[in-house]
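Data availability (excerpt). All sequences and predicted C-alpha cell strings are deposited with the supplementary files. A representative entry, Bifunctional hydroxymethylpyrimidine kinase/phosphomethylpyrimidine kinase, is shown inline so that the format can be inspected without opening the archive.
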Amino acid sequence: MTTDTPGAGPAPTAVPPRVLTVAGSDSGGGAGIQADLKAMLALGTHGMSVLTAVTAQNSLGVQGAWELPLEAIRAQFRSVVDDIGVQAVKTGMLASPAIVETVASLLADLNAPVIVDPVGVSKHGDALLAADALDAVRTKLLPVATVATPNLDEVAQLTGVRVTTEADMPSAAAAILEFGPRWALVKGGHLRGDAVDLLTDGAEEHWLRSPRHDNRHTHGTGCTLASAIAAHLAHGMPVPEAVAAAKEYVTGAIEAGFPLGAGIGPVDHAWRWR
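C-alpha cell line:
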C-alpha cells in the first residue's frame, strides 16, 4: 500500500515525443499545420509549429496566401528547438525560394529525422510553391530530408519524370534520391487501381498498398501522411515501419473523411476515436 506525501501534488506526467511542423496555415482546417497538429495529437505526440505562410482557404480552394517574414520563421524555429527540443520535423508549404533556403539551413544541423513533403499545389490545384523555388527544394531542402514524400505531380515538377503506371515508380523514386534524401516515398494515389506507394532508399523497396476508396473527401491527405510518418519516427520506429504505420493511419482517415462546406471535405484525423 502506498500513500501520497502531503503537499507533494500529483505524480509527474510522462512527456510525449515532440514533433515540429514547418508549414503554412489552412484556415479551413483540412490541411497545413492544422492537419499536421491533429495527426500528431492522434498519434500520441506533442505537436508544435513554425508558420511559413497564412492562407485564406476552404473546401473550394485557396482564395489568398501571404508569406511570413524570414525573421518570423527563424524566431519561431529557434524558440521551439532551443527550449523544448524536437524528436522529428515535418515540412510542408514553403512558398518561396527564400523560405525554402531559410528552412533548409535551420534543419541542416538538427539532430532529428526530417520529413519533407514538397508541397507544390493544393488539393484543388492552387499553386503553393513558386516555380523559381523548385531549384532550392532540389539543392537545399531534399538533401537534409530523412524521407521525401512527393506525389506524382510533385515528382514531375522536381525531376521531369512522369509516372503513368506502377512500373514507372522505381525510376521516379531513383530520380528523387539523386537529390539527396535518405528515403523516397513516391505516392501513387493518382494512378488507377489500388492506392500504391513505393518507399525506397535505393537498396531496398517497400510497396505499400491499400484498396481504392470511394470517399471524395480527401483534403489534407499529403500533410496527414507526412505528419504521421514524423510522429511514428519520433516514437522511435525505423523508417519502413513508420511509413507503413502512417499509411494505415491515413487510409483510415480517408475512409472516414466527411463533407464540410460545398467542396472537398477533410480526412478525419480522429477516426480511431469515433
